[in-house]
Amino acid sequence: MADRAETTMEAPSGFSRRGFIKGILAGAGAVSLGSYEAVAQMISGPNARPVRGWGVPEGLVRLSGNEMPIGPSPRAVEAVLENVYSFNRYNRNRDIYARIAERHGLPVVEWAPNSFTPPGAWVTLGCGSSEVLYAVASAYLRDGAEMVEATPGYAGVFRVAEPNGGTVKWVPLASGFQQDLDAMKAAITENTRVVVITNPGNPTGVLVPSDAVKKFVQEVPSDVIVFVDEAYIEFSKNPEDRIGAAPLILDHPNVIVARTFSKIMGMAGLGVGYGLARPEVIEKLNQNKGGRPSMLSTNAAAAGMEDHDYQDRARKVTWDGQEYFSSQFDEMGIDYVPSQSSFMLINVHKDADEVVRKLREEYNVMVGNGKRRWEMDTWLRVTAGLQEENEAFMAALKKVLVSS
Ligand SMILES: Cc1ncc(COP(=O)(O)O)c(C=O)c1O
Predict the structure, then answer these.
(1) Whole domain around residue 108: which residue ranges?
(2) Is 387 helix (H, G, I), strand (E, B) or coil?
(3) pTM for the full model?
(4) How far is the CA of 66 from the centre of ligand 1 (A)?
(5) 262: Cβ below 6 Å to ligand 1?
(6) Which of 94, 285, 301, 386 has the largest CB neighbor count within 10 A?
């Protein structure tokens, strides 16, 4: 068949494989579409169609939502199954507050009879960490109160602050896609109530060193909340970095940290996250939350957080995927931002709307669109998946880039 013949074709003479792709990316267009197709076939790997990802229909390669591709932790699954015949009750897991506090070196408090949450806790649970972000906005960002956040950034707090009359000062990233903490500090005014640091950043994947976060907390006015969203910090290469900002809470009543079970713990579909802060702050957040994570999700979370083998596997598949992506992007001459997170930001030098659309419509591959979400017109954000998903994405991307 033609496909087979094309896969064995040599690249046009005078082009190295790397140089050829680079030329295409730079817009060199002297080769006919037929040749592009031929070279695309030659450089490609498997199509998306035969790929079987966890929790998605066969053939769909979903690398858009920063989900964990290895399926859930077996211990979390067991915990769900153990409780599946009793969800006619409100019972939620009660150990989880203590386990979370212990994990982060914060005081553990006792439950009181008939209380919904342990009084005086340093932990609040949310339906995903999204609910903690919403609670921060609802509690502190109303009626002209100001927040400061880096842009491009996650912007989850502002989505809730804005309709309540909260305002924002966006602070552009510095070189190397770093959040510019000096500029963020300088952006604080007497109206500022919250500074959001997403660590590592989303969409950048760039980590703010913990020393820099500590210095920032020490230097900003103590009545400004420093909200550190650590959704992805468990993917950091250095275990020390995974400790994050929680230890600062002991000495700084203005620090709130958010974590989620959706990423490294592989429970995005269960919707559990938490906030850490001093008890008086936690109380305020609790007054500004609506939901309560369910019996099944809290039991799964309590079991899953002890499954360190799973978390190691999650880190490994992510790091392996990113190593593969990096080597491919290096070979293709595609710029990317080295990541300490579960996704990578890449510059394909083509219109991101078009590339994302073609990947989805022609190859069943989903990635994040930097243009749509962050006005980064030629950038994509791609989550590391299973190796076969990563290969299918790369194959599709190469074909889309040579035919765009
Ligand atoms: C930076 C960041 N914070 C918070 C969240 C919210 O996650 P969840 O509500 O699933 O815990 C996300 C989700 O993608 C995120 O990327």
Answers:
(1) 89-304
(2) helix
(3) 0.90
(4) 9
(5) yes
(6) 301
